[in-house]
Amino acid sequence: MNAEWKAALARAVREVFENLCFMLPSPSSVSIPPERLEPASLSRVILAVDFSGAGRGALHLTLPDSMIAPVASAMLGEDGPLELSEQYDAVCELANIVCGNVLPLIAGDRAVFDLASPRVIATMDTDLGDNFDASARVLLDDGLVCAAISLEFATAQGAA
Amino acid sequence: MSLHVLVVDDSPVMRKMVIRVLGMSGLPIESVHEACQGREALDVLAREGNINLGLFDVNMPVLNGEELVVQIRAEPRIAALPVIMVSTEGSAERIERLKRLGAAFIRKPFGPEALLDAIISATGG
Question: Does ipTM top 0.90?
Answer without folding.
Answer: no
